Amino acid sequence: MKVRVLGAGAGGGFPQWNCNCYQCSRLRRGELHASYRTQSSITVSSDGYNWLLFNASPDIRSQLEAFTAIQPRHGVRDSGIKAIVLIDSQIDHTTGLLMLRESTVPLEVYCSDMVRQDLTSGFPLFNMLEHYCTVNHHSVPLDGGAFEIPGIADLRLYSHALKSKAPPYSPHRHDAHPGDNIGVTIEQISSGRRLYYAPGLGEIEPHVFQTMNDADCLLIDGTFWQHDEMSKAGICEKLALEMGHLPQSGPGGMIETLKAFENNRKILIHINNSNPILNEDSSERKQLNAERIEVAYDGMEIEL
């Protein structure tokens, strides 16, 4: 199974276009040992030819241009993207669908019914796309049930609901529903190898812990280092858990949680521009290195 990280950043990427925080400003001046990151998305394939896209970020065009294996190979119009899985309905995970409107074949979109509801109401992307191309919606299970996707050989998916937040625009932002956010296990049928992908984790529930334990590789929420990170950076007063993200540090944080998974490869993705782990010389990054926790970057390739 081949995995390509198209984008490893949280909403706004790194640096964020209007941010003059310590990290963004230093990166622009070439004073930070760090890499530029676009907004989070991955793609997975078993044959290196037919790809399953997870989330469609606003940066999708540049991400696809940077990845030769998914680019057109046959005919005037073509793409290696055979289907799309949406983890949630956040703007930074769905706006890229508009960039795919030129598709000459239907967009096969797999997501929860709650995500579909958001994308036909508060942020009606599906309604807009009807004027350009066909969008076929496929519901995904929320109880860990398995499903396969036509055209994506040798891969089986299992999805479950996570405790997190619907987007600010959602009609039920303050009324959480199962399916606002999901975690997905991608299994290669022939080898049994498993990747667990969850870029938005607000709580490690028992079923999430078990799923993580069963995976060979964890590609999970790395948004914030600490709970009040945005406040300390002088950006806003929003707290990590209030936004549906479990911070890395502190009691019960991601670092402490990941200690239980000694035999799994552990990689953080969806990293906010305020997170000090982006600085490869920081003490926080060194702490992750000591715990054998990796930090995803644009163009990272994982093979299971």
Task: Explain what you see.
It is a single chain. This protein is of the alpha/beta class and 304 residues long. 18% of the residues lie in helices and 23% in strands. The chain has a seven-stranded mixed β-sheet. Strands 7-8-9-10-11-12-13 form a seven-stranded mixed β-sheet. It is globular, with a radius of gyration of 18 Å. The mean pLDDT is 94.
Task: From the structure above, extract its key features.
304 residues; alpha/beta; 7-stranded mixed sheet; 9 helices; 14 strands
Short description:
The chain has helices at 22-28, 60-65, 91-94, 113-118, 125-129, 206-214, 229-232, 254-258, 283-290, and strands spanning 2-7, 41-45, 51-54, 81-85, 107-111, 135-139, 143-147, 155-161, 182-188, 194-198, 217-221, 265-269, 293-295, 301-303. It is an alpha/beta fold and 304 residues long.
